[in-house]
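so my prof wants the structure for this chain in the tokens format not the other one, which i didnt know existed until like an hour ago. anyway here's the sequence
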Amino acid sequence: MLKYLKLVMISVSLLFFVTSPASALTKQEVQQLLQQIEISQKEITYYKNSFNKLEGEEHTLAALQFLTREQALRELLDRLVGHLINNTAKSSEIETLNKHVLELLHKQSTVIKEEIVLIETFIKQASEKQKENTTTIDIMMNNQVLENAIRLLDEHMEALYNNSVHLKSLAQDPEKDLIYLDQLLDTYTIKSAGQLELNINALGDIASLLSFAPEDTKVELASKAKILEYKKSKIAESLSRRIALMDLRGLNTTSFYHILLTATGQVSGDIFNTEVAFDLMQRSSEAMKLWLMKNGIDLVWKFLLFTAIILLFRALSKLSTRVIGSTLEKSNLQLSSLLKEFFTSIASKIVMLIGILIALSQLGIQVTPLLAGLGMVGFIVGFALQDTLSNFASGLMILIYRPFDEGDLIEAAGARGTVSHLSLVSTTILTLDNQNLILPNSKIWGDVIRNVTAQTERRVDLVFGIGYSDDIPKAERVLADILESHKLVLKSPAPMVKLHTLNESSVDFIVRPWVKTEDYWNVHWDVTRAVKQRFDEENISIPFPQRDIHVHNT
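here's what i got, hopefully its the right format
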């Protein structure tokens, strides 16, 4: 699937590149681009002259220098073409620029073709040198040179197509360039497809040799297999780019898509081509028929046995859940509901895991390597999920020590609300304004936990102030009477009314009735309301901040 996405991205990028013109440029930006193009042309001329004089490695480096600068020049030219396409106004400057850009584009047609011929020479030389290589390092180095040359060839074929599209957008006829490009694509795509099939065959041969080769030979064969595998991926990448370009040209690519699909497993953008899809379906159905004729009866019996074992252990799993749950309910152990649920769930899953392993063994799958693999995977996953395991451990500690249970009102990790769900990894809290908060257990266990509803009784702490001129004994009697008359205030422990603080503008009483936990807020609100009403009836003032403002007229 990744190969398919890669191919689609190449196709889309090409389409976008050649059909989406750049925004119009300012005069200054146009002049800067023209100056940069002129500088690039001078550098290209210099390196081409050096290329003709030098030999060996310096000869190749000079070629890379002017090829790189040609590519940069074409990018500058693309911006100028986009400017001309966007700028529909007719003026002498635009006509002059249009004429100059057309000259550059026609010159690029010739330059790109010349460079393609040069790259073909590099490819030919690298291919001939490849036959002389004997050591693994020499083979790898030469393969790298060959891959770079093939990549340059693909880039130049794309550049020739882009140049032709630019010429067409400026009312020119690039038919000769497109005919040349089609011939190149046909030739080199066929080569890539052939090389890909040969590479796959070579990998198959090495795989066969590895099954019986001596140990000292296996190392060399494995090394060659890695080189061929890497080479296969590069050939497939090049073939994908060429197929994408052929699609843009409207050429027939069915056979090449078939090679990508059947030989390498790549999924291309033309997977929905009816010819390719029909051929693949026909081959797959024939292979499936042969396999079923040979293994069908045995497979049916194994499948039936596998299903029977799974169903049996599923029933045992449910039975173990009921038995363990019933045993825990009847036991004298003071366990939380979540801890009971945890034990029953673990027992059920262990029984089911044993059943799956037994069922897999009946299908011919070796369970011992599977268990070893699970152990290794468990180690890797455990290392990668350290935070999750920390939450898991904290969840176990919460289950064992039971600082709270589902339905409790708690304050932990900066959150306040009712515990609606508790798992081994996280705790879900329903806040007082009906929001769900999911907190990691490690955050909760590593912080202060306040369980508001853990006790059946709570004390309501209230503070009421009166004025300095008010009758203190009278205020005490009124507050005590309010508490005594409220039906939800408990008689034991007895409520408390005490003069507590002489503040700057008030005399403060602390009022502390005891209530059942579920009646806390009702008593808090009722007493506060009753105090205000009774104080008003008894002419007892409740001080509030005041400020005197003196206005001076000048």
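also thought this was worth mentioning. The chain has a mean pLDDT of 80.
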